[in-house]
């Protein structure tokens, strides 16, 4: 409705969206404008309180609603409403009590959460310690196994060395037992042949 009024350059509506409120519906025709302005003011105050309060409470909203009801009754019956200062003092006292209760509950929740977190961390630490112990045990077992393997290797190495040494000794012996070269053989054989030839010659002479 306000947009349409601005576009057509007509008069803006007197009540706007607040006109649909039950407070205005219950008011008399001559009091609709007054109660709508009063309701708009109380809505503005409520929105500011909600915006700047640390712990949101419904205390101020309830008190403001009571004020609107009292103002509506004042328009109809002429009964004077309470002053705004009195209502706000009552609201502040009640709101402080509510806030204290809410803070207590939040502290309890925080303590419980911290306890749960502490237990969880302790459980994780215990699990980590168990894992570390298991890993230490495994490493020790691996070290023992490696030492045994090293000992076996060391035992095998001397055997291999002995095995390698034996063929060398055999080789030396074989070298010593190797037959003489052909030239030496001839030299050794020639004196024997000469002796045999001499013997044969002597025998022939005797026969003659």
UniProtKB/TrEMBL annotation:
It comes from the Eukaryota. This is Nucleolar protein 5A. PROSITE patterns: NOP. One of its GO terms (cellular component) is small-subunit processome. Residues 1-77 form the Nop domain. GO terms for molecular function: snoRNA binding. Residues 126-208 are annotated as: Disordered. Pfam families: Nop (PF01798). Transmembrane segments: none annotated. PANTHER family: NUCLEOLAR PROTEIN 5 NUCLEOLAR PROTEIN NOP5 NOP58, NUCLEOLAR PROTEIN 56. Residues 158-178 have a biased composition (Acidic residues). It comes from Mystacornis crossleyi. Part of a large pre-ribosomal ribonucleoprotein (RNP) complex, that consists of at least 62 ribosomal proteins, 45 nonribosomal proteins and both pre-rRNA and mature rRNA species. Within this complex directly interacts with TCOF1 in an RNA-independent manner. Core component of box C/D small nucleolar ribonucleoprotein (snoRNP) particles; the core proteins SNU13, NOP56, NOP58 and FBL or FBLL1 assemble stepwise onto the snoRNA. Interacts with NOP1 and NOP58. Interacts with NUFIP1, RUVBL1 and RUVBL2; RUVBL1:RUVBL2 seem to bridge the association of NOP56 with NUFIP1. Involved in the early to middle stages of 60S ribosomal subunit biogenesis. Required for the biogenesis of box C/D snoRNAs such U3, U8 and U14 snoRNAs. Part of the small subunit (SSU) processome, first precursor of the small eukaryotic ribosomal subunit. During the assembly of the SSU processome in the nucleolus, many ribosome biogenesis factors, an RNA chaperone and ribosomal proteins associate with the nascent pre-rRNA and work in concert to generate RNA folding, modifications, rearrangements and cleavage as well as targeted degradation of pre-ribosomal RNA by the RNA exosome.
């Amino acid at each position: 409705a306000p947009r349409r009024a601005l576009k057509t350059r007509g008069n803006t509506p007197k009540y706007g969206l607040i006109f649909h409120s039950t407070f205005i519906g219950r008011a008399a025709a001559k009091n609709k404008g007054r109660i709508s302005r009063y309701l708009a003011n109380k809505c503005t105050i409520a929105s500011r309180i909600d915006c700047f309060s640390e712990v949101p409470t419904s205390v101020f909203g309830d008190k403001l609603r009571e004020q609107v009801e009292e103002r509506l009754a004042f328009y109809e019956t002429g009964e004077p409403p309470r002053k705004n200062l009195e209502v706000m003092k009552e609201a502040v006292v009640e709101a402080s009590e509510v806030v204290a209760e809410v803070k207590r509950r939040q502290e309890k929740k925080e303590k419980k959460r911290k306890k749960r977190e502490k237990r969880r961390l302790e459980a994780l630490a215990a699990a980590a310690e168990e894992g570390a112990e298991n890993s230490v045990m495994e490493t020790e077992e691996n070290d023992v196994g490696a030492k045994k393997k090293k000992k076996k290797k060391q035992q095998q190495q001397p055997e291999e060395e002995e095995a390698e040494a034996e063929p060398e000794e055999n080789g030396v012996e074989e070298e010593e037992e190797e037959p003489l070269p052909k030239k030496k053989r001839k030299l050794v054989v020639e004196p024997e042949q000469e002796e045999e030839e001499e013997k044969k010659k002597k025998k022939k002479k005797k026969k003659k």
